[in-house]
Amino acid sequence: MGGGQIERWQSVAARKRSTRESILQGYSKWRLDRVPDADVLDVSELCLSKLTDKEKVIVHHDATELIAAIVSKQYTAVEVLWAFIKVAIVAQDTTNCLTEIFFDDGLTRAEECDRYLEETGNVLGPLHGLPVSVKDHILLKGQDTSTGYILWANKTIADEDATAVALLRKAGAVLYAKTANPQTLLSLETNNNVFGRTLNVFNRKLSPGGSSGGEGALIAAHGSPLGLGTDIGGSIRTPAAFSGLYGFKPSVARMPHAGLMGSQAGMDNMVGALGPIATSARDLELFSRVMLQYEPWFLEPPLLRMPWQEEVAKGKGLPKKLSIAILWDDGVVAPHPPIRAALEEAKAALLAAGHEVLDWQPLNHHMAVWTLICKLYLLDGGKEYHDTLNQAGEPAVPQTAWILSQHTQAYTAAQTWPLNVEREAIRTQVLRYWNETVSRTGTGRPFDAILCPCHPTLASEHDTTRWWGYTSYWNLLDYTAAVFPVGRHQKDHKYDWDLPAARNPTEEYIHSLWDAERYQNAPVSLQLVGRRHDEEKVLAVLDSVEGALKKARKIEESKDERD
Amino acid sequence: MGGGQIERWQSVAARKRSTRESILQGYSKWRLDRVPDADVLDVSELCLSKLTDKEKVIVHHDATELIAAIVSKQYTAVEVLWAFIKVAIVAQDTTNCLTEIFFDDGLTRAEECDRYLEETGNVLGPLHGLPVSVKDHILLKGQDTSTGYILWANKTIADEDATAVALLRKAGAVLYAKTANPQTLLSLETNNNVFGRTLNVFNRKLSPGGSSGGEGALIAAHGSPLGLGTDIGGSIRTPAAFSGLYGFKPSVARMPHAGLMGSQAGMDNMVGALGPIATSARDLELFSRVMLQYEPWFLEPPLLRMPWQEEVAKGKGLPKKLSIAILWDDGVVAPHPPIRAALEEAKAALLAAGHEVLDWQPLNHHMAVWTLICKLYLLDGGKEYHDTLNQAGEPAVPQTAWILSQHTQAYTAAQTWPLNVEREAIRTQVLRYWNETVSRTGTGRPFDAILCPCHPTLASEHDTTRWWGYTSYWNLLDYTAAVFPVGRHQKDHKYDWDLPAARNPTEEYIHSLWDAERYQNAPVSLQLVGRRHDEEKVLAVLDSVEGALKKARKIEESKDERD
């Protein structure tokens, strides 16, 4: 590297990866003797291979249970963290899910938790001792925040924590690792030139989704019980869906959102939300409750002064008979058979549990909405993204190239106003449509929630993601959405449903991908959508939906046993 | 007017005024035999000159009392409306406050209210029979919405009501007139080429403020008990202050806001709020409560799902000892002596009532904030405003010319992002400052509210308004603010305070205007500011502040009597 010349991007990446590697070498005892070849697809069991039996039990607990176990001194915070660290190390070596690693800090903090509990009998906070992982672009004091950009790598050590991170610390959580996000963050896969590509734990030919894909991979591997993600088009929900986890995208400005590194700071025509990825629905509630318990509206100006209604989230006031709408197909890309089958199963289970199930007729505008969303994502024609890549001389990864090709016109300020008007018109149209469903339901209420795919495919094969419509549509509307797992796809499963004829090139491409073998072992997930500011209600309805599914499966199992 | 040529602007204005005149001629019995000459300054008594004694009593009631009196059949809705109509006619002829007049519709509706009550014993809604006036740019079905633009005059008959208007109707209110707003709406005076200039009822050489200046004039004249205004820089508060009324600017998106005609539709870098102008503090609460009772968040996507907390607004949970901060001077333009004196009086009264009063140290950024605000108002360099004037060939009125000169650069979309970042940084700075006041107060809480001028002058002499900082600053922060009257200025009053040396040309200009004679008879008002989403609390604190002032004055009076 000559004087005044910028470092080649490959060299920045190598330096960044070597720093990570040298930290991991301090934990070499917990690394695999041999990292499996690429053709070993499912590494989920391997990720647990360094654990004792007790540690295996530990990493299978959800956050709620872990905290209770630490507080009741069944486990120490230190042994809990060690269990997750051991998994995280193998998960990193097999899926490339971590960016910044600071296990030592985490262990120090875990010791502090244990000592405090021992000495005072009190907890540090409602997340006492809980290990929590954090998506790369979320500021964590003292840690680099390269956010998948070569330009930012090694140059973005955070001076302070993001609000959500500060609140996690206040609540007694233990931070120990940051996780991969894709170049530009504007991707539903996770790949960047700094750290490379992140892989799906259940099938490494597949993506863990994005942009919170490092979280998805790490948590699915049981290398973290709970993680912080962000979502402006599906970036919490897609990783949750692709890895069989729970993900929650609240309405904009309900959860803390300050302290995120990213492009286009100050762009507020379409805004994202921070939320949890977890292994249980109740952990989504736990996270939300704890964040709002600290009245973050007194910390960040944009946040809404809407206290968390724990009782509502836990079902208070929720009618016994729900009216659930199913969006089977958004009119642009019909979902692949396993997802259709999952919706069918859920419908039957809901009906069996006494709920009402009707169709959400897709408004004939999902492609137009996507076109608008791309304009809003790229109001400068993508210039800032391109500039950030070009300044470091790094190439766009394929998913970046694809999304940046979706809109290339740079707008003036005044040209953005009609786009906002269009956005509001769409929001009004859907609001009215939802209101009017009161005339179709038998409950005297409009629909309680919408059940729909999270993505038209199971976990995407790398570089094949082309349709964000099932998630980004709800971002445009600023609706609340939770993703939850319903099963795992196996290649020999027969689905009673064929893909319909393709209606457009996007659908043609996505339908061409359908092959039961390709998606072997991929989780099957669904999405539950509520109205704006319906966070608590969506979680309450999710509990009912999961209850109905569980009950129906029990009946099915007992039938099978009788047969 | 030749074929294909556009109508000259003077002709459009003449047509519009003649339509209004012809409607008024249908009520000639209630017009003055002779409109007083311009040198008759105070027309407030004159406005009541056509009323019976009973009608005089009626128009001096606030909305709360009027509704109660109609519901208890002390008055009919028809006689109430007639009383206000009679005043409105004279107010129009002396202050030019009305735009669209539809007294007949109002009377029909008032009859309907009376009949319904008579026949069913029930009320139509919580505003049963209440006359309400509406600012011109707020859509009212069937009425033109020229909004002070020649281009729009006669061409903007509303297809439907604004949400707030629809809710007023639902609540049983009676609509009968629309009121003047200035050209562009971006003015704290009220003057446009369509209808001309609106005058202050108490001194016609002075402005009633703007942009809801028609409301201010009409309500101050007792030609309406309650009116709908909007505020993006002081447009509810300034008219309320200049006319001795109560005005309430809630945080953005708490009150209905859809259905407003105006320039820059879709510009959301800085957004306004709709709110009431009234003759009592309790009517501000009444209006807010009624609006939110209809859950308008299910009618308009941007609205926040934050139900009105009536009990909080009425003082529940409000500590007995409040900690009030006074912003004496924003560091740019020190207010004129009557306003300073009013703050001094309020301070003494609050202390006497046992409250704590401390100084709000102005952050050294009020001029910078104003510069940012002007950029946000005029992100296209004012092009859309200029175009709307130019397309009709109408000239800018002086206040338009002044505000449009404040920022002339057209930005790209990307150039607006750093402005939003700057806006958020300012919001964060003030949020933190407010939080930190907990260390200065003796209550264990940060300040409960800020008491400050609403404007550096009393009602402006026409075309002299130059400093919006005392109102627009709170818009930028999205804080809640209420304006309330504290007295009336008389030219022979001696103030124990001289204006300090001017610190900048704006202050120099505004201080040059100070002359006790010039502002003869102008109301003196103050502003009470709360944090974002503090609507209910601000009204509760306002009640305490008014209580303290009333008590102090009673003591003062009884002292005077003893002397």
From TrEMBL, chains A, B:
It catalyses: a monocarboxylic acid amide + H2O = a monocarboxylate + NH4(+). The active site is at K135 (charge relay system), S211 (charge relay system), S235 (acyl-ester intermediate). Its EC number is 3.5.1.4. Keywords: Hydrolase. GO terms for molecular function: amidase activity. It is an enzyme of class 3 (hydrolase). InterPro entries: Amidase_CS, Amidase_dom, AS_sf. The keyword Hydrolase applies. Substrate binds at L185, S211, I232, G233, G234, S235. Residues 79-539 form the Amidase domain. PANTHER family: AMIDASE-RELATED-RELATED. Belongs to the amidase family. This is amidase. It comes from Calocera viscosa (strain TUFC12733).
